[in-house]
Amino acid sequence: MPLYETVLIARNDVTQQQVEQIADDIGSELETDGGAVKKREYWGLRSLAYRIKKNRKGHYLFLGLDAKPAFVTEMERKLGLNEDVLRFMTVRVDEIDEAPSAILSRKSDERERTFRGPKPAGRFESGRRRGFDDREEFRARDSFQGEEFRPGAVEE
C-alpha cells in the first residue's frame, strides 16, 4: 500500500486529548481497512501564520499512514466535515522516516539553548552600574556604622 503523511491543525479551543481522539479514530478506521499508522507526533499548540476561522493558534498533529488511496479520500472527507479541524494536508511519500520530525527536533534544541551566557555591556551604557547597595540610603547607613549609636542621645 502507498505511504502518506498527514498534518492536521485543530482549533485551540479543544484539548490535547480531543486532538488525540481524532487521531485514534483515524487509526482505528485505518486498521479495520487493513492499513496502519506508522508514525504519530503531536507538535503542540502553535501560533498560526494567519487567522483561520477566527483562530490565532492551533493544535498540530502529524500522522504517517500506510493506507489505500480510497481510505485517504474518505479520511479527508471526514476531516473536512469535522468542525474541530481547521486545516489538513495529505501528501504521498516514498518512505516514512522513523526519526523525529524537524519540528520536534527543533523544540529539543530550543530547550538546550536557554542560557546564553552573561549579557554584554550595552552600546549606550557608560560608567559604573549602580547596584542594590549603591543607593543613597545605604551609603548613609554605611557611613554611620563606625560611630556609636545611642538611642535618645542628643547631638551637641
Automatic annotation (TrEMBL):
It comes from the Bacteria. InterPro entries: Ribosomal_bS6, Ribosomal_bS6_sf, Ribosomal_S6_plastid/chlpt, Transl_elong_EF1B/ribsomal_bS6. GO terms for molecular function: small ribosomal subunit rRNA binding; structural constituent of ribosome. Residues 103-135 are annotated as: Disordered. Keywords: Ribonucleoprotein, Ribosomal protein, RNA-binding, rRNA-binding. GO terms for biological process: translation. One of its GO terms (cellular component) is cytosolic small ribosomal subunit. Residues 106-115, 125-135 have a biased composition (Basic and acidic residues). NCBIfam families: S6. Belongs to the bacterial ribosomal protein bS6 family. This is Small ribosomal subunit protein bS6.
